[in-house]
Amino acid sequence: MQLRTPSIFLPLQFKATFLYIIVALVMLVPQSSLAFQQNNTELDYNEYSGEVKEASGNKALVFATLTVEGTNISTISNTEGNFLLKVPKEHVSKNLVVSFLGYRTKILPISSLERQGNEISLEVSVTQLSEININAPKNAMALVKETLKNRDENYFQDPSLMTAFYRETIKRRRRNVSLAEAVVNVYKTPYNIVREDAVELYKARKSTDYSKLDTVALKLQGGPYNTLYVDMMKYPEYIFSEESLTNYKFTFDRSVRTNDRLIYVIRFNQHEGILEPLYQGELYIDVENKILTGAVFSLNITDRDQAAQLFVRRKPAKVDVWPTEVSYRVDYREKNGKWHYGYSSVFMEFKVDWADKWFNSQYSMTAEMAITDWETVSKDERPKYRQRIRKSIILSDEASGFSDPDFWGEYNIIEPEKSIESAIRKIQRQLRRSERNSD
């Protein structure tokens, strides 16, 4: 029996979204939860793994997109450049398309891939200076406004049912203390309507090592919604509403090429006279078609106390909590001339300072979600309210533990980083010992 203990909530908000943290005092108890079991007697897919890197310098390319040509099946490389792709056998005769911003897209037959150890090298795509000056916009803010205005025309106009892989991790310094993963169904509403997206949980797994949490258990509230709301083209009101645009200064930074498209990099930052913590970062805009293809940005922590007020709702009297970094990323993909949400992540680093301790604790949380397949559906296929996960979901409370290495079956996932793989192997060994002791 697991003891119930009092909990203290420290919600961390991404403006009006649902990025939260719960900090709770816990008693250390053994965990005995087991994962869903899945037995695949005959696989109807091939699995390929490898690394995407730069051709000239062997630098790992992080978040490169890998897509099976002519399908909606895709995945991305992880923060170490590694990828894992599962291709249904009916598609193994097709090509694999590998793309990365600023590099030449590579197309290669899937039949030429080995099951493991593939090395895919991409060459840098050089942009000539003359290209930058031809029909170049003169006003960066005007380009951003026009891109937002063209959203209804350039992005999906039909409802879609997307299969997505979601992962969230919590680390105390460099050590993983909590892992949670899920395959979810995302009902993505058209970009030209105000209605919000809906998420349905398909399957999930998790583990938390409370012994490394310093008697403080952290849980991320909101789950996949944390990443879904980073889709700024679907939810521009969370960062670039018509009223808030004037709070920012937009400037041209550089230009790159990807998929034979000229991409302008627009830097933005809040005006110096604004004291409220806003955002700073880069927008990647297809200048010819006025399309946002991706964005990387972070909270501008100008004042620690003000930033803490944005994120902390309630906390113990003797605990001080403040963020040291909050950053976001979103990438879009194109199909038949229309663009859609493909990947997003949220990274948060913060400190917890107890008044009666000499040293404070440093924690980081990462949440990421990648669309691995999708199909156009009718509006009637939107899941009922009782089928959707709540926006207050705590995924680690909804999932079971790690045990089955073939847990995900045919579903594409993001290849775990080495530190996560090591943590999962350790968890599996612990569960096996626990099972043997209970027999």
UniProtKB/TrEMBL annotation:
Q: Which UniProt keywords apply?
A: Membrane, Transmembrane, Transmembrane helix
Which one Pfam family would you cite for this protein?
CarbopepD_reg_2
Whose protein is this, by species? Flagellimonas abyssi
- The UniProt transmembrane annotation reads 12-30
Q: What is this protein called?
A: Carboxypeptidase-like regulatory domain-containing protein
* Taxonomic lineage: Bacteria, Pseudomonadati, Bacteroidota, Flavobacteriia, Flavobacteriales
